Amino acid sequence: MKLPDLMKNSLNLSVMAALGLITYSSLTTATDQKLALVSLPNANVSISTLSTNTYVTSEQRVDSLCHQIEKKLGSVKANDCVGRGFEEADGYSVNGLPIIEREFGPLNGREALSRVLVIGGIHGDEYSSVSIVFKFMKKLEQHHSGLFHWKLVPLMNPDGLLQKKSQRMNVRGVDLNRNFPTPNWHEESHHYWVKKTRRNPRRYPGPAPLSEPESQWLAKTIGEFQPDVIVSIHAPFGILDFDGPKQKAPKRFGELHLNLLGTYPGSLGNYAGVHKEIPVVTIELPYAGIMPSSREIRNIWVDLVRWLIDNSKEEPAATQVKITANEGGLDPS
């Protein structure tokens, strides 16, 4: 069969493969088969047949990713993701999987005190960094007051997570957290990789800054969303790290205490925190494969919201503080 022109690109082939809509043998033109050779081997799902009238919607692509996350992570169920307001974020992985996001914006026409970007799963083998974003989302579903404008991105590196053996890097072997355009990137990032890490493949910064579609998307999103704070979630060091104006650094979230790790060429903290002067809080969970307790997740969330209140670009009125406290699930009385 011949694919409709709308579907003739590797992204749509990969998506249709992930949805189980096509097989290599169902493609009859040489062009379609050439594209399929790029896309289908990376789908990691069962494939069936394609109807010539099939059109893959954005909602289907999101739902497909949600089900793949469920298969990979025991702490995330499909109903934690499907039908919960996630949308494609106008960004895709190398393999064509969508980067998904969910926003909790201002309510009742009130201007948000701060815009907060929360990023999980930059490294695909740090499972807890993905799962905890879904837990934070549930807190916002219960307590969102509208005084902060949240953008939640649970999985920035879907290809890394969804490999048969999950990996830190994206599918091209690039550490996305070393791929951001910091000054003297070409000299410093590769010098650090060669001399300091001894060419550790887990720390490969890529051939050029923003060489990867995932890091390109995040840099673009930072420019468009203009966050006042970025919360980047990792594992397994069990600390808080911070890049940005030092007077704003949090002391602790839950049992995670501030311990500055320094900056690295091409890192998000270096790029956004040091050079763009956007406070970047890095939550380093204690374990990559084990979630914190429900109580500790709550304490991390409450302390994060309190810190945001204390560091808002405006000083909220007393009534606003009470509403914002409720956003963190603090004392509703």
What does this 3D model show about the protein?
By secondary structure, the protein is α/β, with parallel strands linked by helices. The protein folds into 2 domains: 5-56, no CATH class; 72-327, Aminopeptidase (3-Layer(aba) Sandwich), CATH 3.40.630. Helices cover 35% and strands 14% of the residues. It has 10 helices and 9 strands. It has helices at residues 10-18, 30-39, 58-72, 127-143, 158-162, 185-196, 213-225, 268-275, 294-310, 318-327, and strands spanning 87-92, 98-104, 114-119, 148-153, 229-234, 239-243, 252-253, 256-257, 280-284. A 7-stranded mixed β-sheet has the order 1-2-4-3-5-9-6, with helices on both faces. The protein has a two-stranded antiparallel ribbon with strand order 7-8. Strand 3, helix 4 and strand 4 form a beta-alpha-beta unit. Helix 9 packs antiparallel against helix 10 (318-327). The protein is globular and about 50 Å long.
Summary of the model, kept short:
The protein has 333 residues and is an alpha/beta fold. It is built from 10 helices and 9 strands.
Main sheet attributes: strand count, strand direction, barrel closure: 7 strands, mixed
Integer count of domains: 2
Q: Give me the number of helical elements.
A: 10
The helix/strand class is alpha/beta
Helix content: 25-40%
Q: Beta-sheet strand percentage?
A: 5-15%
- Spatial order of strands in the largest sheet: 1-2-4-3-5-9-6
Q: What is the CATH homology-level superfamily of the largest domain?
A: Zn peptidases
Q: Mean pLDDT across all residues, rounded?
A: 84
Give the distance, in angstroms, between the N- and C-terminal Cα atoms: 64 Å
Basic shape: globular
Order of helices and strands: HHHEEEHEHHHEEEEHEHH
How large, in whole angstroms, is the Cα Rg?
21 Å
- Second rung of CATH, namely the architecture of the largest domain: 3-Layer(aba) Sandwich
CATH structural class of the largest domain? Alpha Beta
Strand runs, count = 9
What is CATH's topology name of the largest domain?
Aminopeptidase
Low-confidence stretches: 1-10, 20-52
